[in-house]
Amino acid sequence: VERAFRISDQLRRNAEKKHVKFCELELDETGRKFLDSCRKNRPGTMKTMLHRLRVMHKQSFYDAQADMYSLHLASLTQIKSLLSVAGLSNPMFQNILDVGAGEGKIATDILSNIGDNIFVTETSEKYFNKLKEKG
């Protein structure tokens, strides 16, 4: 915790020197739940080894990642904090583009709360098919 504080403090000082805005994000309940689910659902040794073989045998890296590791970038509260630093409190955007949407969890759980139209892109065929199923 002390090291994280020193790093955060250093980032804040560097931002001030460069006259840029700095927004420290706190780990919130959504982030805690995500980390807890990762700990509980961690892939076992066999699944990890099979995953490595799939990647080595030139299978699409992104398809090999599917259903293996979840990704959580930020909660709705954290995204709103970042936007407020940019002067956008309670924003509602007409269009949002989610590049590399995966299975669409961020688009449906978070971005849909701040945008009217959510557009997604995905290079993984497996994730693309999951997105198509969701509509």
Structural features, described:
Strand 1, helix 6 and strand 2 form a beta-alpha-beta unit. The mean pLDDT is 79. This protein is 52% helix and 10% strand. Strands 1-2 form a two-stranded parallel sheet. It is mainly alpha-helical and 135 residues long. It starts with a helix and ends with a helix. The chain has seven helices and two strands.
With helices defined by DSSP (H or I, 4 residues minimum), what is the helix count? 7
So what's the overall shape?
globular
Secondary structure tally: strands:
2
The run of helices and strands is HHHHHEHEH
Specify the biggest β-sheet. 2 strands, parallel
Order of strands in the sheet with the most strands?
1-2
Distance between the termini: 42 Å
Average pLDDT over all residues:
79
What percent of the residues sit in helical stretches (DSSP H or I)?
Answer: 40-55%
Kindly name the structural category: mainly alpha
Low-confidence stretches: none
- State Rg: 18 Å
- What is the strand content? 5-15%
